[in-house]
Prior knowledge:
Low-confidence stretches: none
Radius of gyration: 25 Å
Number of domains: 1
Mean pLDDT: 76
Distance between the termini: 75 Å
Oligomer: single chain
Structural class: alpha+beta
Strand content: 15-25%
Amino acid sequence: MLACHKYLRTKPPVDSESITNPAINTYFSSANGRNQPVTTSDRVKDKILRIIISGNLPFSFVENVEFADLVKDAYPNCGMVTRKTVVDYLRSKATCTKEDAALRMSESRSKVSLAMDIWTTRTHLAFLGMCSLNLRVIFP
């Protein structure tokens, strides 16, 4: 069999175990990145909230009959997810994040100026604009 010598010189050496037993063990090892902790109601709400945000969907999307059936079939132990529960979850996460940011900023030796604006277009697309300026304060 003819082979390209330049290719063979740059090709990394192959060990015999990887040929006989390809990376199937990575699917069953505990180091697999898809192994997640037990799914709770808050984790389901968090994933649904991420879907809504990334897809620019309305909160009423969770009340779609087919989507609600999917969530009920996939996670029977989690309670019914409604737009109110998702909005309440978002509000609680925003409050926790705001408190955490305030705590981190109070420990910082710099000052932060934050400007925010929210607007809606004529076609009802909502936007949030933020501008941040971090000023390092040097204390004697």
